[in-house]
Each structure stands twice: as C-alpha cells, then as structure tokens.
Amino acid sequence: MSRSLAIALLAVAALAPGCASAAASSRTVEIAIHYSRFAPSSVEVPAGVPITFVLRNDDPIDHEWMIGDAGMHARHRTGTEPVHGSRADEITVPALSTRTTTLTFPNAVTLQYMCHLPGHEAYGMVGTLTAR
What are the C-alpha distances in Å from 54 to residues 1, 5, 14, 60? Predict the structure, then answer.
C-alpha cells in the first residue's frame, strides 16, 4: 500500500465518526388527527435517535396520543386520568391545537399509539410505530 493511500484511508476513518453522528441527529415526525383518525397511521423511525413528534389535532374535540406496548395500553383502557402531559409518551391534545413531545427508542421495537378516550380506539384511533 502506498503511503498516500494509507494517509487517505486514515483521514476517511477519522472523519467517519463525525459523519455517523451527523446522520444520527434528531428527527421530526408530524401526526395529524382528523375525523378521529391518526395520519399517518404507521410510522418508521430510526432506533437510538431523538424523535420529535408534532401532534396536530384538527378535530373540534380533545384526543390523546399515547404510545407504548400492549401492557401500557391495557392499563390505560381502564384508566381514569382525564388529562396527560407530564410524560413524553402520554399526551393530551386539546381540540384544534398542536402539542410536541420528544422520545428516543433505544432499541428496535414495534409499538402502538392510540387515543383511549371512550370509544376512540374502537373507532380506529390506532397507529403503529416501528423503530429499526
């Protein structure tokens, strides 16, 4: 291997970590709520990257955006909390308003996001998030 080729390879190797961290910067996902449905109803995000969710409720009624596994949703189906907001994965989105939250999914996972207000899940307010 020539000396100049070796120097070039070392330079590329030194720059690679900087390129990787730039690619792993935060990302924004917009989810609209309209006619008591989430759009999009399926989202794919990179694992290990902070994701900012912009939740826009275009309906004249309040909704929730709650993301988690089956156990979390089972607990909330019978819950009595009228408003959410202190946890990044449980957000109340008042009528005709927008809320933001940021989450990082450290590993590959598939979760659901739902609205657990009475009748909303049965009506179809369900979405799927896949982190890869």
Answer: 51, 47, 36, 18
